[in-house]
Design brief:
This protein has 10 helices and 3 strands, in the order βββαααααααααα. By secondary structure, it is mainly alpha-helical.
């Protein structure tokens, strides 16, 4: 079987493509080529960005067949893909298949929801994360602070501010800029600029 990255679908092949390309990008033969993780990651990201749902589902099926879809890194990328294409139930199904203790799954789903403007969903998943006893870190805090700013939830923002100080991560650029942004959106500009 041949995997063809192209705009065209050929009988008997699984076609992957970037919609804005006119010519085939790459032909991958199972017999002669072992695709790297980076190739798959790039395809998943591209399909998510281009909202190419059908091609992404075909790639997901290919990853399942090859036993790769349940690996955390692939599952995390696929979660982001499904959120980007507004397939929230599929994203959540994948999320639920990753072991609960894996912090990366929480970071990915919260971040993906936040980027897509799905604020309540992101805050709900963060709440679940807290109930599981998993602490916030410098990777999840910016996404949650962004959500707090959008819904003017200064109370949760203040709690996260104390977590930032407790774990001494206020020097992280993304954390501090998210904190300032949250306070500014909640009408407490002085508090945000005092954080710097």
């Amino acid at each position: 079987m041949c995997l063809l990255l192209s705009r065209y679908q050929f009988k008997g092949t699984l076609a992957f493509f970037r919609p804005h390309h006119k010519l085939p990008i790459l032909i991958i033969s199972r017999r002669s080529f072992r695709s790297s993780s980076e190739t798959y990651f790039h395809l998943i990201e591209t399909y998510g960005r281009d909202r190419a749902l059908q091609q992404g589902k075909k790639l997901h099926a290919h990853l399942i067949i090859n036993g790769l879809a349940r690996l955390t890194h692939f599952a995390s990328k696929l979660i982001s893909f499904y959120v980007e294409t507004r397939q929230l139930s599929d994203a959540r199904k994948l999320f639920d298949k990753i072991p609960e203790s894996n912090i990366r799954r929480w970071i990915v789903l919260i971040g993906a929801y936040s980027r897509r403007g799905l604020i309540q969903e992101a805050l709900s998943v963060f709440s679940e994360m807290q109930k599981q006893g998993l602490g916030a870190n410098k990777f999840v805090i910016p996404s949650v602070l962004k959500c707090c700013g959008h819904v003017y939830d200064v109370q949760t923002g203040r709690i996260l501010h104390s977590v930032i100080l407790k774990y001494s991560i206020e020097s992280d650029v993304y954390v501090i800029s998210s904190l300032i942004d949250m306070y500014s959106k909640c009408g407490e500009v002085e508090k945000g600029t005092a954080s710097v």
